[in-house]
Amino acid sequence: MRVTKRLLTKRLLTKRSITTATFLLLLTVLPLPRAARAAEVIDRIVATVNGRIILQSDWDEALGYEALLNGRNVSEFSDDDRRAVLDRLIDQELLSEQTKSADAQHASPAEASARVAEARRQYPEAATDAGWQALLAKYHLTEKDLLTHVQQQIDLMRLVDARLRPSIQIDSKTIEAYYRDKFVPQLRQSGGGDVSLAEVSSKIRELLTEEKVSELLVSWLQTLRSEGHVQIPGVTSPAEGEQAR
Hints:
The chain is mainly alpha-helical. 64% of the residues lie in helices and 4% in strands.
C-alpha cells in the first residue's frame, strides 16, 4: 500500500500541477492590493484587465513568489516563463472579479497562517525564524505579504471549487477504466503489489475530479478573457537586477 499511496499522491499532485499552471501556483502570486503597498512609486503598466492595472512591480513580485515556490532564482526564468507569469496574473485578476459577486466565506488570518506554516516546513533553511526571514528576504518578500497572498489564494480556490466541482460526476465505469488502463500498469511498472479497486476507488475519483476541474477552469478562463477587455501595451522581461539572485 505504501507504493500505491506514493503513486497516487504523485499522480494527484501532477494533475494538481495542471491546475497550478492556470490556478494554484497562479493564485499564490496574486499582486497585493494597491492600498497594501507603502511608499508606492510611479510604476509602468504592463497590462490592464477590465480597467484594472497590472504594474511592472506586480509582475516582478509574482516572479519572486513563483521562484520561491519552485526553489529557483528569477534569473533562471526564460522569457516564456516570465510571460507565463504575466498571463497568470491576468487570469487571477479575472477570477478576483468573480469573487466580488460570489457568496463565499473568506479565508481567515488563522487559515492563512496555517497554510504558510505548512509551506515553511518544505524549506530546511526556514527551520529557524532567522532562516525563514532570510529566505523571504532573498525573494524580496515579507511574511505579512505572504499571508495576504495566501488568503487570496484560498478565496479563489473556494470560488473555483464552488463554481466547477458541483457539475462534475465521475461514474464507476470511468473509475474502473482508469484503474484498469492506467493505475494497474503504472503500479506494476513501479514494482508494487496487487491492490484492489475498492482500496483506491475514492482516490481515483478525486484524481479524475481534479483533472476535470482543471479542464473546466481553462475553459472558464478563456471565456472570461473573451468576454473581458485585456490589454498588454508592450511586454518586456522584468529587470532581473530587482529580483532574487
